[in-house]
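Render this sequence as a predicted structure.
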Amino acid sequence: MRDEMIYFADMVPAASGGKDSYGDHAMELQLSDAVFAELKSIGQSEFYQAQTAGQKPEIKFKLTDYMDYQGQRYLIHEGIRYTVLRTYRTAGNELEITCYGGVRDAIAAVSDKGD
């Protein structure tokens, strides 16, 4: 059941074109439209296989249509920003997205509760 609302995001140069305190181009988080997904669990064998490669998968989602994902680096769910670890296209048009590193921060302050 696709009842979880997620957003995809990437860091892009700020529209203001300004610089940060280090002289680098200021960046901002650019969000996609909301996408409905199914929350999946990380299987035990998948978790331990990833651990041997130095990866730490934390959460997985299944999308109905792989076209909803355009290669963004981040996924936001319930105000927590995750980094996309891997994607896997399954039967038909479905796509599984495995993520790690859940971080609750100000720039990920997007949720399905009124936003």
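Summary. Residues 74 and 83 are 5 Å apart (CA to CA). The chain has one domain: 4-14+25-108.
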